[in-house]
TrEMBL record:
Its cofactor is Mg(2+). The record marks S128, R149 as: Interaction with substrate tRNA. It catalyses: adenosine(37) in tRNA + dimethylallyl diphosphate = N(6)-dimethylallyladenosine(37) in tRNA + diphosphate. Residues 1-23 are annotated as: Disordered. This is tRNA dimethylallyltransferase. The keyword Nucleotide-binding applies. Belongs to the IPP transferase family.
Amino acid sequence: MDGADDMDGAREPAVTAHDGARPSTRVVSIVGPTASGKTGLGIAIARRLAERGERAEIVNADAYQMYRGMDVGTAKASADERAAVPHHLLDVIEPDDAMSVARFQRMARDCIADLQARGIRPILVGGSGLYARAAIDDITFPGTDPAVRARLEERAEREGPGVLFAELERLDPEAAARMDPRNPRRTVRALEVIEVTGRPYSASLPRYRYVIPSVQIGLDLPRAELDRRIDLRTRTMFDDGFVDEVRRLRPHLGATASRALGYQQVIDHLDGLADLDETRLLVAQRTKRLARKQMGWFGRDPRIHWLQALNPRLVDLAMGIIDVADGGGYDAVDMHADEYVRHRLGDLE
């Protein structure tokens, strides 16, 4: 598997001693499905770096954790975790504000540049694959036209998403081949970009190419263990006051914030459409489905160095990967990432 470590650690990098003089310190991006332990690994790496005299701080890459007050339902880093290592881009916008990946990209890159200018290594943690990549990859986001989008959405409702997808196949077959025909929102966006820019949507599709020197470490788990963690996290969320959080935030939730997984399900419960046990079960099921999608998304990026989250040497292995990356050891592979066969995750059974 080119560009990716075997998940059982067969391609473990040598762990080198810190010599105090690095050619380049990379942004460390920690990715993987929800509940895989990304925050914990980020904190452990920051502490290990501090032991050898290097400052590191965490940059949040989860769009919903950027909202103030959305704490329990997004599994936001606790006060103790934030005290252990400074976190950035948490609690920076109100729930009725809109967050887009383009806006996040600007904020994340500004934050990364500020940290690096002060001699601090950024550790990017969490979030969807697109958000994590937007911070460090060669990705541009074309502008929007609300009138064009509204017209396309009305057509999708009236004519059906299949008609619009067929139109996309005709106008931009490359983009259509890389998209899910069952996702009308993406089809509408692609057609909007084509109409607004006069260029194929595929010309704006992200490439696997860093614009900020980085190294990505992925956490993978056997599906049974991941499901167990998701069930536990869901129970803990409800025990910790998730319903009260949604009740308090509901009058202030904007269109973007309300899409956070679990919030609409709890709103339905508050409206009497489902009892609490049904709601907990549904949130856990939706979270497991999201985790499967995340594994597929991240698995397409051959630059990610995958580690088994249950490996007792996890932090040592992660530090070894960082050391090799800082020395340029992966650059020759990473620059050809678009050419490689994609890696499939989740086959640890």
